[in-house]
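Hi everyone, sorry if this is the wrong subforum. Our group has a chain we'd like a structural model of before ordering constructs, and none of us has done structure prediction before. Sequence below.
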Amino acid sequence: SSAETGDPAILTGVCTAELFCIVITNQRKHDQHCTNQASGQLWDQIVVHCERMKESDDTKDIPILQLRICGDGSHHQVQRWMGKIKSWLKNPSFQFRPPSNRLVNAKKYFYLYTELKEKYTQHVSSGWDMQTDPDKFVHEDLAIASYLICIWRERYGEGAADYVRFVDIGCGNGLLVYILTQEGYTGLGIDVRARNIWSTVFASSSFKEMHFDPRSIEVIRGSNWIIGNHSDELTPWLPYVASQLTPCDFFLLPCCPWNFTAKYARRSHKHSVYQDYLCFVEGVISDMGFEFQRDVMRIPSTKRTCFVSNGARAGVNLAERGAEVLRQYSNSGTIVERKREIAVTNGTKVGRELCERIVQCVAFYLLRNVSDEQTGEWSAGESASFAELVSHIKDRVEFSEELKQQDGGIQTILKNCHQVFQIRQGIVSIRDWRMGAGRKRRAVANRKYDRTALAKTKLCWFHEHHPQGCNMDECMYAHGDAELVNLMM
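Answer:
Right subforum, don't worry. Here is the predicted structure as tokens:
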């Protein structure tokens, strides 16, 4: 391509068993936003378009790649980038990413999303009383709400709010339900656990705390749209529920992979678990006889693929087909029900006395060759594998049922005791805090107090138990009860 003429250059590449024609155009950008103020150069934008070269397919012009490079737009520079693109196309793993939000009008979606963002962001964020980051959920659910409203308006016109009766099954914090109901749509949010925010910020919306059984749907009778936003165990069941509520459509945004009765097991190792699960969900929807489309949403999440149904295929009785497909997939198994109370299995709820016995047993084993009479360099003792440590302490510490129910058992207890132990590649050793002195620490989001505010609020384990004491000149932990600081919560 010539920088002066901007004539397109043609490359061909074979990708996913189909032949594509790649049109690469170098476009000089002269507006102020594309000017490199530091060097005085202009930005050059290389736009890559893809045309499917198959007689059986309609010709499509899809922008698949846009590169913005700083330079003088010389022939040599453009040829260098063309060479890189050609090498990418020859890579068997190269895949063209489909454009996002294909099912909605981009302009209408943008204006609606901007309107909802201005209307709800500040109000919801200021009243957010959950431990999760509000920015992530607010922007994601605003995008999903905008997407759904655009689809409903496209299908049902301006009277969409009078027609749609939605139910969000597995609604979680209920933000999506709140936004949609505030915009005039009638709906209900169902989840196995109630959230405090339901009765405070979202008090104007309708929620129901219950175990939802997809084979008993009287509670949602009358709904004509089902929303499954990260509905996990219920994801494959929701198309079946929609088939029994005919006429009823659904919106599915799958996340954690579950089949009808258990955790989903990947069927093909050629794809990731997520991509393989999407193929499974797509197969379930197709087998049940729905007309549907698959789209990629523009949301701050790695799980962005959604499915939107549009009634039944011609000549298909959804109720009968859904029951038949359910028998085929579930094999008369039972649905996995999520427990109302979430069991904490990360070791933080194990009894303090048991944790202390395990920590002391492991620490003294690693320091068995270190004595208080030893002079010279401070010693961190020896290292040992988890298997060796378990073998050592299993006859010395009585294991209780509460420890057996934790994920990882002893390993979890030791990892939680960050002050004392360092664990790398399955090897446990006593931590030498001098090795991390001067290292910049990563800021932790949502932490109530910073590290300096927590100084001297806990006793130093090394001062209390290590034969040679603490090796730090300025220790963040208290050396004795006299140095302890009471942090007012």
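For your construct planning: Residues 1-46, 49-72, 444-449 have pLDDT under 50 and may be disordered. The first helix runs from residue 75 to 90.
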